[in-house]
Structures are given as structure tokens and as C-alpha cells.
Amino acid sequence: MINMKKSNLFYTGLFLSALLLSCSDDNKDENGGGKTDDLAEEYYSGGKLGTTFSTTTFAYEQPTPVVDEDPEMSLQFKYGEAFFEKEFTSNTSGVRHGLGPAFVRSSCITCHPGYGHGKRMDRYRAKDHGNGYLLVVTDENDNFVPQLTGMPQTQAIAPFLPPIDESGIKIEWKEYTDEFGNKFPDGETYSLIYPEVTIDRSAFNVPMPDFYKVRLEATIGIYGTGLLDAIPDDSLLAQYEKEKKLGYKLNDAKYQPENFIKEADGTSHPGRYTYGLTRGTLQNGPGSNAIWNITNVTRSDRRYHYVTEAYAVAMSQNKDIQKSLGKTEKEIYDYLMSKELTPELSDEDYINFMVWHRGLAVPAARDLDNDQVKRGKEMFYSIGCTSCHRPTWTTGADDYKGDDKVKGKLPRYPHQKIWPYTDLLQHRLEMVNNIRTGWCRTTPLWGRGLSEKCTGAGDHLHDMRARNYNEAIMWHGGDGKYAREKYRNLSKEDRAALIKFLESI
Q1: Domain count across the chain
Q2: Any residues with CB less than 8 A from the CB of 265 and at least 6 apart, and which?
Q3: What is the dihedral of CA 178, 182, 185, 187, to 10 degrees?
Q4: Is residue 5 part of a domain?
Q5: What pLDDT digit, counting tens, does each position of 8-61 carry?
Q6: pTM of the prediction?
């Protein structure tokens, strides 16, 4: 094995002090730091233990009251936050070292501007801030092309090459006319667009099959993921059974015990995270994985690179790489495929990251007593939006301990009534150029009304094709088409009220 990377260094006191000082003013709530009057429970989107009343541009970045009230956990939250916000480097030592050899992004916040979802883009450039796009390259059966990782990398540390040269990626936004001619019965018109993505064959630095297709998936907001983690598995399965009895078309395979997601601690759980429901708990969730596979920074439980064997073969056989490294083909291949690499992210840093991840609060709902908002809520419920966008859940005892590293060390949210507006199940939206497999988890709506303020963009849906709520609703097909049809037949005033309600939650 080639010792191309070294183990992590401990923080210095100077770094810690500087970090705390740099962050101390950013998260202040200009509306009183969470102090509230007596409010209806619906204002507490994340329950009493998980809601922030900040409405600033930093609303998505706030710690939950559980974290705020624990000095030790608050400190861990700050340390973990730095691993989300700061770039990793290719250095062989330092606080955030070990980037590469191939990687998707050098920092998490690049994909999650303001801790929210990514922005709609006209080009794929990994270093463009706010580009939350991930490439999905599949075969004719919608299976991932095995020569590439599930989230293909477009960047690499020299002399290595990325699996895909992003200069060969083209995003073209096309106009779409729906069955209604993009017109409401009252004559108001709307516009719909969708992306077509192509990758030149010459852009691949690994062998590719004769046929492949490309789609985009955008990152989602990460606030409140800890609260979703606290929903009992039994509640998820009960929701599936309820909707199944009502005749909804669901991805049944996801709810068979043999297909549950296995965790490092030996337990298995139904999926609740990602569009594809590929993650069952936060300890194996998107953030936990991203701190490894997006950056390719190893840790004690992931002592290997997120690369494919096809990539290892291609890089190890590259004469320029051999010459630059002064290594043989076998040495390079063994390094890239090793399962015993030195951890680069310490266990302590990983725990801090997970405290931050599970400790992010949900912004409180706003203006629910406004007459237009109340009318919009009435419309949202009456036309059937709540069939998939279930308003409330109740967390359980929240006693899942996780693996040995995080056991008993993360924020807990027992017995909280929360308002995420999602059933956490997969439906088909039946859109042109649809998401991979066609199945898509219902996106939580909580906090989305602050997206423009916090992220600079108000785009929606899995590839950000919807530029506003109106377009997002009109893209709904499958189980959502019935609510869409009722929305379409509302008056202009009632449609506006419904959107006002969405902006308030």
C-alpha cells in the first residue's frame, strides 16, 4: 500500500478560539434569539425541541434548543459546522486534509448554499457555488453504470484524472407544453421547463458501455434531518400500509423487510432519506455518507476510497500517472482499491459533524394567522395535497443509539409533534425526463418558504426544473395529478392563497 495520505492532526487551541469567534455573530436571531410568545403548536414546525424562530438569512443554520441548552453539545455543533462549511484539501496533514484522489466537491456547502437545496444551473461546474447538482448516469434499465460511482466525480487531485471531465457535460433547458396548453381554465398562463443532459463520450476517463443516459438530481435542504430520524420505523411502515389500502401506487419493494437498509450496528431500517430512499438512519444518511464519498476523505469505518475498480484499472494503467507518482501499475491499483487506508477524519471530528448534522433546527412557521394564509391552508387540505404531503408526525422515544462511535452522543427529540409536510414515501410524478426509476420520495415542505432568502433561489423538484411553487404543482403527475387538477380549477385568488400558505410553512 502506498502511504499517500497521513492521519489527521488534532485541533490547536488557537484554531478552536478563532473558529468560535468567527461563528459567534453569524447565527444571532434578529428577532429575539428564539424567544416567543404563546403560539399555536403549528408554529413549532420542529416541535418545542427542534424549532428555531430565526427568520434571517441564517435561519437554516440554527441549532435546536436541545443543542443550545447543552454547552458541550453547542461546542461540538460549532466544530461540526466547520466540517460542513470549510473546504477539504489534498494535503497529507491538517484539520481538513485527504481530499481525493477523485471527488465530487471539496466542501459540503458548495452543494447546499445557505444549508438549503441547490440552485438551478445552466452548466455543470463543480466549483460553482450553489451548484447542488449530482449526475446520475444509468444504463437502459435505470441501473447505475458500474464503471462510475453512484455519484460520479468530475474533479481529481493531480496526477489522477476525474472519471468525467466536466467540460464535456452539457445541460440544455427545454420548454414543455402540458396537456392543458400551459393555461388555467381562467386564462392565466404558466411556463414549464425541464433539463436534458448529455456527456460527450470523450469526456469519460473510464471505459463506458455503448448506451448510457444522464439525469440530474439536486441536493435537498439538510435542516431538520435529525427530527425525521426520530420518527419510529413503525410509523413509516404504518403510513405505507395506510396509503397502500387507499390505492396509491407506491414502491412496494422498499417496504419489504428483506430490502431494508442494513446499518453498521447490525440493525435494519426502512429507507427515509434521499429521493431514492437509499438511507434508513441519519448515522447512515446523506450527510454521514457525504463527509466520506463526496470528498473521498477516509475515516475509521470507511478506510477505502469511493472509486470503482474500472477507475482503479484506468488510472493504474495510465503511463503519465505512473511516471508522475514513480509507482508501478500494481502499486497504484493496490492503493486505489485498498480497504485499509489510514483514516483522515478522526472519530472525534466525525462525532462533532454528526452532532451538528442532527442538531440543525427547523424554522418556525410564519403568518399562520394571516387571512390569506388561512385560506391557502384550507385549499391545501381540501384539494388533497395532504395525501402525500402529510402535515404532521410524532417522534418516538428516539432511543436509537447508532454505531459505537456516536452511541448516546447525539441530540435527541423524543415525543415531539413536528410538521414536515411529507409522507416520506416514494410516488411516481410521471414527468418528462423523469427521475431515475421514476420513483421519488415526497419532499418535506417545511422551511421552503425561506429558501429565496437563505439560499438565493426558490427552485423546486428533484432537478430544480420548477422555478416557483406554481410550476412545481403543475408538474405533478401520478398520485399527485388529482390534487393538481383541483388546483388547476381553483380561482386565481385561491391559487395565490395556497402558495402563500406554502411560503408560510
Answers
A1: 1
A2: 401, 402, 403, 404
A3: -160
A4: no
A5: 333 334 333 434 334 434 444 444 345 556 899 999 999 999 999 999 999 999
A6: 0.91
